[in-house]
Structures are given as C-alpha cells and as structure tokens.
Design a protein that fits this description.
The complex is a heterodimer of chains A (339) and B (329). Helices cover 66% and strands 0% of the residues of chain A. Chain A is mainly alpha-helical and 339 residues long. Classes of the chains: A mainly alpha (339), B mainly alpha (329). The interface between A and B is large, with 50 and 58 residues.
Chain lengths: 339, 329
C-alpha cells in the first residue's frame, strides 16, 4: 500500500479523491481540501485540548485577568507622567486622584508608577522561574523513573527531604545572597553577575521542582513498561532519545499544567520573600516590597496596601483559574496539585 | 502494620536529622554574621569580633565543615538545654524553642485543624452540588483565598477589625501580640487569649481550607460516580448515608497524604502571621534569624519545624491506615 511509503497526509487525501468521486464531493462539501481540515486525519491532541479549553469559563475569566494585568504592567506607563521612584514634593500621602491615579506614599512617590514597575519584575520572575522548575522536574522525574536504581533512590531522597523542610525555609536560607550578591558563598561567586531577580529566579527554580518530579517519576515508571518503549530500547535507541521521543511527550500535559500553576507559586514565593525584606531590595520594587511598605500604613492610608494586594490576588487568581481550566482540558483525571 | 509505621517514622527521623544538618551548612555558607559587628561605631577590634563569633561557633574564618563538625559534637555531647548552641542574643536556642513553641503550636494546630475540617466539608458539599450556584460560589471563593497569601489576608483582617472597633467605639477585637499585658483574673485572661487568637486563626484557617476544599472536591467527584455508591443506594441506604459512610471515607484516603505535603505550606503561612500579629513564636524566630544572619537560631528553627513535619507525616500515615483497610496487613 502507498501508506507504507508514508506520503504526506495531504497527498493521500488527494489520491482518495481521484479514485473515489464521492470522497471528492464529500471533501468539497465539508471544505476538507483546505489542507488543515482533512476529515481522514484524526483530530490532533492539541486541537482537542484547545476545543475543550474553549468551553471552560475559568479559562476566559483567568485569561482576561492575567492579560489585563500583563498589559497594565507593559503599557500602563503610557498614561502616567511620573516615573518610578520620582517624588512629587507637593503631594505626600495623597489618596488616589486624577493626578496620582493610585495615590502617593509618605515621601510623595507615585504608586501607579511603582505598581507598573513592580508588576513587571514580579511577572518576569514568575514567568522565568516556573519553566525552570518544570524543566528540572521533567529531567529529574523522567530520568529517575526510567533509570531506577541509585539515581531513583537519590531523587526520592531529595523529594522526601521536602517533606520535613518547607521550600520557603530553603529560600529563606539562601536569601542573603539575593539581597546582596556579595553574600554568595565562595564556590558560587561566579553567579555574581546576575541581578537580584535573576538569582531569585534561579533559587525558586532550583528548589520547587520536587512534587512535580515525583508525579513525572511515577508516570515514567508505568510508561517504561509499554511495548513501544521496550521496542525502542531493544532496538538500541539511546536513553536520552527515548526520554525525548517517548517519555516526555507523554507527560507533556502534566508539565504544561505544572508550568502554569508554577507561575503563581513563583510569584507567591517572590512576594513573600520580598515582603519580609529577604528578596528584592530598595530602590528596586516588586509586589512584595510595595506590600511591605504599605502594611504599616494599611489602616490610615489603605490605598498603599489595598491596591498592591488587589493586583497580587487578582494575578494569582487569574493564573490559578487558567491552570485549573488547563488541567480540566488536558487531563480530566489528573491529580496534579502543588502544595 | 505498626512495623510499617515505625519504619516510616525512622525514615522521617533520619530525614529530619539530615534536613537540620543541611540547613546548618547552607546557613553557614550564606549567612555573614560578622557584618553585624562590623557596622558598629566605634569599631570593635577584629580579635574581639573573632572571639565573639568563635564563642557562638559561627566564625567565618573557620572552615564550614569544621564548624558543622563542632555543631554536631555539641548536639551529641552537651546537656539538652545547650545542644543547639546560643543565638546571637546569647540565649540558648533550645530554651527559646521551648519558650516559643506553645504560642506557635496554638496558632498552627488550631488553624490547620479548623482549616482541614472546613475544607473537607466544603469540598464534599461542592462535589455533591456540582455546577449549582452554591458550588460555583464556593469554587471561586476558594480560588481567591488560595491566591491570597496569609500575610495579605492577615493585614486585611486587621484593617477590617480596626474599622469594626472604631465603629462600635470599643477595642473589642484586640490583635497585637498573643495577649494584653496586665490582664488580671483567670477568665479575663482566657477570653483575652481567645480574642487575640481570633484573627490569625481565621487567616490561617481560610488559607488552608481553600486548598483542601479544591482537592477534596475533585476526589469526591471521582468517588460519586463509582459503583460502590450505587450498590449502597441499591441496597437501600439513604443518599446521605451512602455519601458519608461510603463516599467521604474513600475520598478522604488520598487527603491524608495531601495533609502531610501541605503542612509545610501552613507552617510557612503561620510564620508570616506571627510577624504580622507580633507573636513571639518560632516562625518569627526563624524569619528574624535570617534577617539578623543568626545561624544557630535558624538551625534551631529548622530542627523544630522538621520535627513538627515529622510528627504530622507520621500522623498522616496512621490516618491513612485507619481509613484504608488495604494497607493494614
């Protein structure tokens, strides 16, 4: 059969229409000659997920929340005449007004300008740290599940260590280096070229992959017994190639969900550290430092706390909603849950 | 069965020791306690600083592994109260732990317990009423609460309480510190402690409940469609009996593992609340230890937290065995 020679899918459809006139009629009526919509081809996984995703209200609500906040962070400055950190000496502690949209703090710094800058930093950290930890989880989890033996024991051991040592405590311990790169231990001094947020991305990425790695590992262990993986192995395909071709694509859905929810986790970690003065330091601003500054004034000048807090909660809620919709669409039965 | 739990316990115990030693080494690498003495005016002679730092066992001129070895030696050979050394204020870390643990545990255990009960209840309720308005409201509320860090939730509760106090003109809800100094009499003191506990406990409870309810809801949904529920109904059990006796019990089994994994998050969350509400508990001790580069105090905090998580993990194994007869062999 011609199928054995693996012609491109489009050709086989044309061939079928040449042989069978009804196929041609059918194709014309359904618009299948539009090359992407060949009725003979099974619907791809990506399209299936997308179709399911489109039916989830959470996806739209969360997506709009995140998109609006990202747009605000990127373009919000266009509507504002004050730069980040610039002081208005005539307006101390002024509530939100037409001149200062989000009000000013005790030294006249415009909160609106601080917010856009802080959001950019927090978003940057979130969107870089989450893929980092997901990547590590994919590599460690699939290797541990596939190789077994001492490497799996080592990974198990690292994962279990998390059970008695909260991630936040690990981040706290390494935080002096984030606040001031000169605190890096001698062996890590070469990382000193990174800015504070870069070190924060690295720290969050390096210490938050464990739970996902555990899930990937268990999945890999069952995939390893499948015939096609065994066949590949017996044919002498190398381990990295098997992992890349057969294992990772099969856990990709889990990884996407993890990446999405990881963004919220990373932003939360950054905010918590900076809130206690352990992360981003002045004069840089992030959501955490703004919340820290706003806390002491929370009762008398509520806008200084309530506005950054609302943005943080809205952003995290948006990410959580998108992550939840993705989980429903990709894998309705999965139990990915990041503590 | 008891053998299995014992084996897990020993496993966790080893992990606890390893985690504490790890924390000590990492803190020794990343903390720079010398800075605290360098910033003093008039300057302290270098030999004096070295003397002080060596006395605490945190002199950065000694190699880290040597310091770690001394620290382990101290843990093994010194009497209990001096095992973990002194913090930079000169207090014995073990004494500090015993002095502060009560406060931390009061907040943490109450918040975790109430959060778990509330979360499981709302999760089951939401699953049974899937897609109805009440389920939707609970779902969105839990999404927002999960996304509210405890330190934000705590401050919002403080704002609300202050407004409330101003409205009624009396300081009804007091929230600074664990108690009001100078309260006399037994019942006034108990009431005072309860009032101070109110806001932080609510903050921790809501945060915990939000996460638990999401997870419990999805577990319960899986169980609702299963055969054994239908069988129970077919044998004449009422709907509520079938759901509670057969459904919830099964849906709770994976929850017990989730409790253990999420307890660490709650510990961190309650540490934030201790700072916000000025409680001198272990969480505050740990965060202040990082802020002041106090290696011994931090190792003590990690040790305390690890023991706490060790106990909670073991408890969750026991709970698992109690709920799932299949592991009781």
């Amino acid at each position: 059969m011609s199928m054995n020679a693996q012609p491109p899918a489009d050709h086989s459809a044309d061939l079928a229409q040449d042989i069978d006139p009804t196929a041609k009629m059918f194709a014309e009526r359904t618009g299948a000659n539009d090359r992407n919509r060949n009725p003979h081809r099974p619907i791809s996984r990506g399209r299936l997920v997308w179709r399911r995703l489109k039916t989830k209200p959470n996806f739209y609500i969360g997506g709009v929340l995140v998109a609006v906040i990202v747009a605000f962070a990127l373009f919000g400055d266009l509507f504002n005449i004050y730069a980040q950190g610039q002081q208005d000496n005539f307006n101390f502690n002024s509530p939100p007004s037409g001149q200062h949209f989000f009000g000013t703090d005790a030294i006249g710094v415009d909160l609106y300008a601080s917010m856009t800058s802080a959001l950019r930093k927090s978003l940057l950290i979130g969107f870089l740290a989450a893929p980092t930890s997901t990547l590590i989880a994919a590599i460690m989890g699939s290797l541990a599940g596939y190789l077994g033996g001492p490497f799996e024991m080592f990974t198990n051991w690292l994962i279990n260590l998390l059970l008695v040592l909260p991630v936040f405590y690990v981040l706290m311990i390494v935080s002096p280096a984030i606040a001031d790169p000169s605190n890096l231990p001698a062996a890590l001094q070469w990382l000193g070229f990174l800015p504070a947020w870069g070190l924060l991305v690295l720290a969050i990425g390096l210490f938050s992959w464990m739970i996902m790695a555990q899930i990937v590992k268990n999945q890999t262990k069952s995939l390893k017994e499948r015939e096609y993986v065994k066949a590949a192995r017996f044919m002498g395909v190398s381990t990295p190639t098997i992992l890349r071709r057969h294992i990772i694509p099969n856990v990709a859905s889990l990884l996407i969900i993890d990446g999405a929810l990881g963004v919220a986790m990373a932003i939360l970690a950054e905010t918590s550290l900076s809130f206690f003065g352990l992360g981003i330091q002045a004069p840089d601003v992030s959501l955490g430092t703004l919340l820290q500054d706003g806390t002491s004034a929370a009762v008398s000048r509520p806008w200084l706390f309530v506005i950054p807090a609302s943005f943080l909660v809205a952003l995290l809620t948006g990410v959580a909603l998108v992550g939840d919709a993705l989980r429903d669409a990709i894998d309705p039965t999965s139990e990915v849950n990041r503590a | 069965m008891i053998k299995y739990i014992l084996r897990r316990f020993v496993n966790y115990l080893i992990l606890t020791v390893v985690a504490t030693v790890f924390a000590y080494i990492a803190a020794s690498l990343f903390f720079f306690p010398r800075r605290r003495y360098l910033a003093v005016n008039p300057p302290i002679p270098e030999e004096s600083i070295d003397g002080i730092l060596t006395a605490y066992g945190v002199n950065d001129k000694d190699p880290v592994l040597l310091r770690t070895w001394w620290w382990i030696e101290r843990v093994v050979f010194e009497p209990l109260s001096q095992k973990l050394g002194q913090d930079l204020n000169g207090d014995w870390v073990v004494n500090e732990i015993f002095g502060r643990a009560g406060l931390s545990l009061r907040l943490l255990l109450l918040g975790a317990l109430l959060g778990a009960i509330l979360g499981v209840a709302f999760g089951v309720w939401g699953a049974v009423r899937q897609y109805k308005a009440s389920d939707q409201i609970v779902s969105y509320a839990s999404f927002i609460l999960i996304s509210t860090p405890t330190f934000v939730g705590g401050v919002i509760l403080m704002i609300v309480a202050t407004k409330f106090n101003n409205l009624i003109g009396v300081q009804a809800i007091r929230f600074t510190g664990p108690y009001t100094a100078g309260t006399e009499g037994f019942f006034p003191q108990v009431w005072d402690g309860f009032v101070h506990l109110l806001l932080p406990t609510i903050a921790l409870m809501l945060f915990g409940a939000a996460g638990y309810s999401r997870y419990q809801r999805s577990l319960m949904l899986d169980v609702l469609g299963s055969d054994f529920i239908r069988t129970a109904r077919a044998k004449g059990a009422t709907r509520s009996h079938a759901l509670v006796k057969h459904g919830v019990r099964v849906a709770l089994i994976p929850m017990s593992t989730y409790f253990a994994y999420s307890f660490g998050t709650l510990v961190a969350g309650s540490a934030f609340l201790e700072i916000i509400f000025s409680w001198d508990g272990m969480g505050k001790y740990g965060i202040v230890a990082v802020q002041t580069s106090d290696v011994n105090a931090l190792a003590g905090t990690v040790c305390f937290t690890a023991v706490l998580l060790l106990l909670s993990s073991t408890l969750s194994e026991v709970l698992y065995a109690a709920l799932d007869p299949r592991v009781r062999v």
